[in-house]
Here is the input.
Amino acid sequence: MSLLELDGVSVEYATDAGPLRAVESVDLAVEEGEILGIVGESGCGKTTLTKALLDLLPDNGRVVEGDVRFRDRHLTELSTAEWRSVRWAEISYIIQNAMNALDPVYTIGSQFVEIVRAHTDHSKSAARDLAGEMLEKVGIDRNRLRDYPHELSGGQRQRVVIALALALEPPLVVADEPTTGLDVVTQEEILTLIQEMQSSTNSAMIIITHDISVVAEIADRAAVMYGGRLVEVGDTRDVFKAGAHPYTMGLTNSFPSLAEDVDSLVSIPGSPPDLVSPPDGCRFAERCPFATPECARDPPMEAVGERHRARCHYTDRAAEFRERSERTETWSEEAVAGTRDDDPGFGGSRR
Amino acid sequence: MNLETLPIELSQTRRAALRRYRQSATELFVAFRGQRSAMLAAGILAFFVLLGILAPVIAPYDPTRTFVVDGQAQRLQPPSMAHPFGTTSLSRDVFSQWVYGSRVSLLVGLVSGLAVMTLGTTVGVVAGYYKGNVDLALMRIVDTLYGVPATPFILLLVLFFGTSLVNIVLAMVLILWRTMARVIRSETLSLAEQPFVKAARATGASDRRIMAVHILPNLLPLIMIETTIIIAFSITLEAGISFLGLGATEVTSWGTMLELTFSSGAIRSAWWWVLPPGISITLLVLSFFYLSRIVEEITNPETGRFDL
Amino acid sequence: MSGDVLFRVEELEKHYPTRGDGGLLNLFAETNYLRAVDGVSFDIERGEIIGVAGQSGCGKSTLGELLVLLREATGGRIYFRGDDVGEYSAAERKAFRRNCQVVFQDPYESLNPRFTVSQTVKEPLVVHDLGDPAERDERVRRALSDAGLAPPVNYLDKLPAELSGGERQRVSIARALVLDPQFIVADEPVSMLDVSIRTEILHLFEELREKRDLTMMYISHDLSTINYLADRTMIMYLGDVVELGPTRSVIQDPAHPYTEALLQSVPMPDPDAGRVGTERSGSDIRGDVPDPVDLPSGCRFRPRCAYATDRCASEEPGLDPLDGDRRVACFHPVSE
Here is the structure.
């Protein structure tokens, strides 16, 4: 049995313009001890999904369909009090820009102790010892427990936050954009740290990011989201090297890297769909160079390999598409528009 | 008004701007209407403003006119048909005094408010934009003024220079602009750091242009909030000064009315004389404070949905 | 690249005086200086895109601002097309601004929230009093199309709040283009944008270089983007340029130990490249960036350098030629 299982989860926000389905029918599982990276651009639903998972949705957001199961509990049915026992001890959360999440008027030590004691029956000194241990594990001298957050550098604060998240050795840690906004060197440190900590506590991790190189670096499995839907998921290597969804292909080909032979970068024309009135059928179709009239019909999740699936009608032609998607001409506006012209009734607006 | 059939030629840009203002004005009005307390505050303000404007029409008598009936001075008369709010200890009509008194309070409030707004904003923007020595010098002045206790200082000034309305307003402005300057300076400091200001400098815009065209319009919401608060405060301050007997001698303000109730000893008995000015001051000040809160909510990018 | 020198920078400095922690004794303490930019010298050729890379606090943003006169240098000289920029009269400075523009990182804060797109892009023309209203409208339209916002008429009356991050950044670019400048400094222009928009903007820069003969300084900490876009690359560390050369050489065959270490930190979007946690060769640059106030003696990278010798402690290396058109500030370059 998986550690965490999302079953047909849909999340809706009530907005002035009508209900907005930010997440649509997501099926995802996370096993014990594995690192899952969820990638996608703004508006793809990854942050909403995370918040729904952790009961952190704003007032106008609701999980309208589906179930979230963690071990033997159904997270969507937990009360606030029950959530309190789950947070930190079973599931912890590292928010974006975490280094600013520390309360500036309390010392690091007192914040640690507070969290530990709120979720365990450690005594104050035991909690303090644990805090010291955790700090050392993340490479900070334990004397700094007496310091206030502003006395530490940004990178150190980020490490403190990671230490906090892993202090109680929760089986699942969710990290939202843990390296965004960081220096490339600090980013590497944080990623190494995350990997080390994760392997020593054997926590499972979900890393949400728009930076696919982070996922390539440390995730065991990768999930790609687009327009509120899960479009591809599988082992990282499979998703990156043998991607089966055109969006994944476009994404991997549009990332600059240090590789010597980077001569052309692809850019996917158009922009993500409006989730208040999403298009029928495949949501990526209007930007997809391989779309056909068939794509007006909702594509099912097709199995592509072992533990690898993609939501596309043409997964059998993935190899051909991958080869074509490396060329910039494939993604030109005209080429993408051209494939849709076969069906005049195609919807969607372009900006 | 149909934008398409306007008799004047509007450029595309102006049309779009007009459309936008109409939209937000309508939204504003609708939201306003929805909030009962907002409507109440607006109503109270409108009431007093009308009272002040139409004072000569509404007030039945000259406020300084004394009344003698059958050789008897009509002193401290309770409300009657002839005097709906009764008379004062000097046989004057309370109602007429009250009506004219609204003019003083409103005038003082608005004039001080506007003067403080102009002075405080100018100093605040210049200090916040130029920083360095200019800022240091200007803020030294402001800080010194901060050290001065408001009411005693104003009283001293008024005592020294005379109790005309102009002097009172001047004295208040002198003290009140310090808060405005600080608040505006602080906001200017953060605005001036924003990339769009740097970009304006990079295109070669002069400092004056940047302050006037880029910074000032973005300060408007804050200025409006502060000014409404200052207006409320000035009204209270003026009433207080008048109550202490240093009020303007040429006009009867609500504060002066209250002063006389106190000094004549009638304050405990002549409720008809005490209540109108007392309640009016409270209501007017409260509604201005409330107005400032409404302005804040409207212009707050988090909660508000309007672009004023 | 034409071989024509657009900018020549000589020993450019920007030092900020710092006064310690406060307290009476500081009256007698000598003033320390924060050397944000510490004597850099280089050329920029017409038509090239020169990348400036380094960690936060290395001085790259300050350098960009110095070049477009958003900050005053405290030492050194900048020559633009042969003229000493420091000797400019006020009128000449203003004319200089027509030639050199800037694009910033934050698409949200780079635009005046109360200005429509049309007003924002028109602003430079108004400031320089160029053209009559009809001409201005035409130039605004052209700048918007060149920046990829087509048809321009759809965008003229929009406020920044109504635009996406990518669109806002294009408006900033249009604003920079409307004066038909020769040179644009772009400071992290794509780091706050989504990946697919990033590539579009990068392509846009390439197009602009071709179409408008534009010279660019591209400042970023993201070496992958610089690898893609820049012709030559400059690596900065603690206020100084430590390496300068054709991008391909600098990135594939780094000469300076810092460059070598920096490149090892860059994540690759390729799971097979498995780099994180692997054994490092070379210097360890993890941990906090040292304080640019208290610089070490000799080479400023010495304390962290894996190859430092005694000479590195006593002498400071200059940015000396290595081979071809590469320069490196190191006594023991690591290049093959």
